[in-house]
Design goal:
This protein is mainly α. It contains eleven helices and no strands. It starts with 8 loop residues before the first helix and ends with a helix. The model has no long low-confidence stretch (mean pLDDT 79).
């Protein structure tokens, strides 16, 4: 059984490299891997396939990081976000399942542009300054918004939620561990919804066999580097690359609709 019928070995190799690089980011930061995975794989796969594969393999990758999440993550901080995400993502996955491929490509590009720009320019930080983040309704609302948009676009959830997690945690290991808890939950929940909406197929499990070694290697290297490297400058450069790619993806979606 082929992982993706019609793809050449060269393109499958490119997907493996994409998932390795994304896992490296995930291991380093505890989040932020969905955007590069989805962005670059969307140039190889149809948009629906790219999103489902990204979430499916990300679920496996996050489960391998769960020991750190369980050790350092703060479930009290994560739980209201999880509740909001769980409710809104039902509607988000329904919208995802019913979007035309060209429209989905456009939505993916726009959402990734907004998510990356928001983090690059600190717009999200400025926005949250007007919120009383100590209120339980704030993380619940953030979870709701990210659940809807993230389930349609498949990525960008970590950028949005990390602002709240940054405020609510006071140590890097707790920040990373709480992000791992959130990312693991959001991925598992979306996979469950994909199954309920009849969007999963066997070739995703077959693809996991191909990509698992690269994902594990990326996770391991990123996790080792997390204690030794300052990720700020690296992440800024990486975001600029994402922004350029997201703009190209948006243009691709617009051209498909014209």
């Amino acid at each position: 059984m082929e992982a993706f019928p019609g793809l050449s070995p060269l393109l499958i190799g490119a997907l493996i490299l994409i998932y390795f690089g994304s896992a490296l980011v995930r291991g380093l930061l505890g989040f932020g891997s969905g955007a590069p995975t989805l962005l670059f794989s969307a140039f190889i796969l149809p948009p629906h396939e790219a999103v489902i594969l990204s979430v499916f393999i990300s679920t496996f990758a996050m489960l391998t990081l769960m020991p750190a999440g369980l050790r350092y993550g703060n479930i009290r901080i994560a739980s209201p976000v999880m509740i909001g995400f769980a409710l809104a993502s039902i509607l988000g996955v329904w919208a995802f399942a019913n979007l035309r491929a060209d429209w989905l490509t456009l939505v993916l590009g726009v959402l990734l542009i907004l998510a990356t720009l928001g983090d690059l320019t600190d717009c999200i930080n400025h926005f949250t300054k007007n919120l009383n983040v100590k209120k339980p309704s704030v993380p619940l609302g953030l979870g709701f918004i990210s659940g809807f948009l993230g389930s349609i676009g498949g990525a960008g959830v970590g950028y949005f939620l990390s602002v709240y997690v940054r405020w609510a945690t006071n140590k890097p290991e707790i920040f990373r561990g709480t992000n791992i808890l959130l990312s693991t939950f959001t991925n598992i929940w979306r996979v469950a919804l994909f199954a309920i909406f009849g969007l999963l197929a066997w070739h995703y499990a077959v693809a996991l066999v191909f990509f698992a070694p690269a994902v594990l290697a990326g996770n391991f290297i990123g996790a080792k580097a997390a204690d030794r490297l300052s990720s700020q400058r690296y992440f800024r450069i990486f975001q600029l690359v994402l922004l350029i790619g997201a703009i190209i993806l948006t243009i691709k979606g617009i051209r498909g609709l014209i």
